[in-house]
Amino acid sequence: MSTMRERRLTRAMLTCGAVAGPLFVLVVVIQDYTRADFDPRRQPLSLLSLGDLGWIQIANFVVTGLLNIAFAAGLWRALRPGRGGTWGPLLIGAYGIGLVGAGVFRFEPAWGYPPGAPPGLPGDPGLSYVLHGAAFGVVFVSLVAACFVFTRHFAVRGERGWAFYCAVTGVALPALYLLAGLLSDGGEDPRPLSLLLRAMALLGWGWASVLAVRVRGSHTPVAGRGGGGRKRSLSRLWRGGSS
């Protein structure tokens, strides 16, 4: 019974990761089309943290980050000591910490939002702006690195479809980032920057949630006679590839 409770706790943690990405995207989309004076076609989503309703996006960053930290703990419990069982959870945990940091440290008024803000980037950025950018860097680097950790993991296991999905995501994220910088002239033109950053969030956050669904689906405790008959958990399945 103790083992059953542990597996249920692990599944609950993995569920946190499954809901984190869709929750973040849904809250952003709702704000995109309900926030007065906000134009998602030319104003990056980080600007949603500003203004009277900025607390909504701040909470969105922080809650999504905490959900992914719980997801990382679930991965740690489910995958170790198999391949990817150490670096995978650590990188997903860093991704979650970065999201929390992006909520705690806000962007500064820019690109015309809130009304009265300068039309371009902040002229004299403060500490919060710098730390928000650093938090985004943690999110970006850790998520890309996690993609390649799981690419290797699935490749070793012979799961080519999953390995391909992870690898494509790991390549597409930096490609979108570079494209955003080039097309926006280093951030001077916010229109391509805003759209491509949203595409990165949809792709990267979505990949993490799909991974959580994959792991959770294979970590199902099923009671049998006397509570002893169960499907093998993902932790046993994945450890088998490294033993």
Describe this structure in words.
This protein has 243 residues and is an all-alpha fold. Helix content is 67%, strand content 0%. The two termini are 26 Å apart.
Topology order in helix (H) and strand (E) letters: HHHHHHH
Roughly how many Å apart are the termini? 26 Å
Total helical elements: 7
Helix content: 55-70%
Q: Structural class from helices and strands?
A: mainly alpha
Give me the Rg, rounded: 20 Å
List the uncertain runs.
Answer: 222-243
The total beta strand count reads 0
Give a short account of the largest sheet: none
Average pLDDT, rounded to a whole number, is 87
> What fraction strand?
under 5%
Task: Using the alpha-carbon principal axes, give the shape.
Answer: globular
Describe the structure concisely for a colleague.
The chain has 243 residues and is mainly α.
List descriptors.
243 residues; mainly alpha; 7 helices; 0% strand; disordered C terminus
Task: Describe the protein's topology.
Blueprint: H1 2-32, H2 54-79, H3 87-104, H4 127-156, H5 160-183, H6 190-217, H7 234-240
Helix pairs in contact: 1-2, 1-6, 2-3, 3-4, 4-5, 5-6
